[in-house]
UniProtKB/TrEMBL annotation:
<dbReference type="InterPro" id="IPR001763">
    <property type="entry name" value="Rhodanese-like_dom"/>
</dbReference>
<keyword id="KW-0808">Transferase</keyword>
<protein>
    <submittedName>
        <fullName>Sulfurtransferase</fullName>
    </submittedName>
</protein>
<dbReference type="InterPro" id="IPR036873">
    <property type="entry name" value="Rhodanese-like_dom_sf"/>
</dbReference>
<dbReference type="Pfam" id="PF00581">
    <property type="entry name" value="Rhodanese"/>
</dbReference>
<dbReference type="InterPro" id="IPR052367">
    <property type="entry name" value="Thiosulfate_ST/Rhodanese-like"/>
</dbReference>
<dbReference type="InterPro" id="IPR001307">
    <property type="entry name" value="Thiosulphate_STrfase_CS"/>
</dbReference>
<dbReference type="GO" id="GO:0004792">
    <property type="term" value="F:thiosulfate-cyanide sulfurtransferase activity"/>
</dbReference>
<feature type="domain" description="Rhodanese">
    <location>
        <begin position="22"/>
        <end position="105"/>
    </location>
</feature>
Length: 107
């Protein structure tokens, strides 16, 4: 519950909306540490830790494509969105926490 509250305070999007974007082809970036990523992540997600986000965007070239970022609570994902938007990525979306996204994952 605490993570869900943090996600809401961080400005994350509704999990169902994020999954619709993912199903439509949005890139998914996990901005947590490699250790956190290795403990579990969304299928198809790429791991670019927040500290490496500015220099690690070689895997994302289309600045108009939707990108869903997530982390442990949504705060790092929001910081990641701010970094991407400052670099001209207009469709960066804060997906909130991994836990919240997993709860909304379509079957």
């Amino acid at each position: 519950m605490f993570q869900s509250l943090l996600a809401k305070l961080s400005g994350s999007q509704d999990g169902h909306t994020c999954w619709q974007l993912i199903e439509q082809g949005a890139k998914v970036i996990d901005v947590r540490s490699p250790e956190e990523f290795n403990s579990g992540h969304l299928p198809g997600a790429i791991n670019i830790p927040l500290a490496n986000l500015e220099s690690g965007l070689t895997q994302v070239t289309d600045k108009q494509a939707s990108i869903v970022l997530y982390c442990g609570a949504g705060i790092r994902a929001q910081k990641g969105c701010d970094i991407l938007k400052a670099q001209g990525f207009n469709c960066a979306i804060n997906g909130g926490s991994l836990k919240d996204l997993l709860c909304c994952q379509p079957i």
